[in-house]
Design goal:
By secondary structure, the chain is mainly alpha-helical. It is about 40% helix and about 10% strand. The protein contains five helices and four strands. It has helices spanning about 5-15, 25-35, 40-50, 80-85, 100, and strands spanning about 25, 60, 90, 95. The strands form two sheets. The protein has a two-stranded parallel ribbon. Helix 2 (about 25-35) packs across helix 3 (about 40-50). The structure holds a DNA duplex.
Length: about 110
DNA sequence: GTTTTGACGTAGC
DNA sequence: CGCTACGCCAAAA
């Protein structure tokens, strides 16, 4: 059986999919969970690939709690709208009480 | 095969 | 307090 070479993306997708509703996490946290805290950029890349999958990319923000990836969504407001729909308050493209809503991949 | 870029992070000024 | 620069790794051109 062929091994999945996309383990990096697959791994990111798997972790991101584990994010509970109403919670958010950071690229660095996911990257660190994968064992590559410096590959935080790759997480964003993986998320871009995850567009169209079960991966809630809107729950992933940078360590500042800023919705840096909103521009990559179908609509730049979709990310904020989705987060609000899950109970996450977004202000100035940033997550309010970010550290309180921050969820670390287990 | 080399160069550029990219949804980040940290450090420096 | 805000911007610049560098690092880091992987994919696309």
């Amino acid at each position: 059986m062929e091994k999945e070479k996309d383990n990096f993306f697959q791994r990111v997708h798997e972790v991101a999919r584990t994010i509970p509703v109403g919670r958010v996490t950071t690229y660095g946290a996911i990257a660190a969970h994968l064992g590559a805290p410096k590959s935080s950029r790759m997480v964003g890349w993986a998320m871009n690939n995850s567009h169209g999958t079960d991966v809630p990319a809107h729950r992933v923000v940078n360590r500042l709690g800023m919705l840096t990836g909103k521009a990559q969504f179908t609509s730049p407001t979709e990310m904020e709208e989705r987060l609000r729909a899950e109970g996450v308050v977004v202000k100035e493209e940033k997550v309010v009480d970010f550290e309180a809503l921050f969820w670390e991949p287990i």
